[in-house]
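User: I'm writing a tutorial on reading structure tokens. Could you give me a worked example: one chain, its sequence, then its tokens, then a sentence or two explaining what the tokens reveal?
Assistant: Sure. Here is the example chain.
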Amino acid sequence: MMSEIGFIPRPLVRTKQWVILLSVATALITGQIWILVIPLAAGILGLLFNFNPVMRLAKLFLKKKPSDSIPVLV
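And here are its predicted structure tokens:
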């Protein structure tokens, strides 16, 4: 029995990747390690409550409908 494959629009995945990269770079450059709490908290909220604030915020700025974007399989 196959379950339906879900997907996330590529722009949302790219935004999440950029947030992680920029927060790590900023923490390394400034020495302010607390900045790493941002992607950590977003990831934990996504795992526990199925709510990722980074993805939710990025979804507001999508130019296309999510179904029209290039999918990234999950």
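What the tokens reveal: The chain is about 55% helix and 10% strand. The mean pLDDT is 88.
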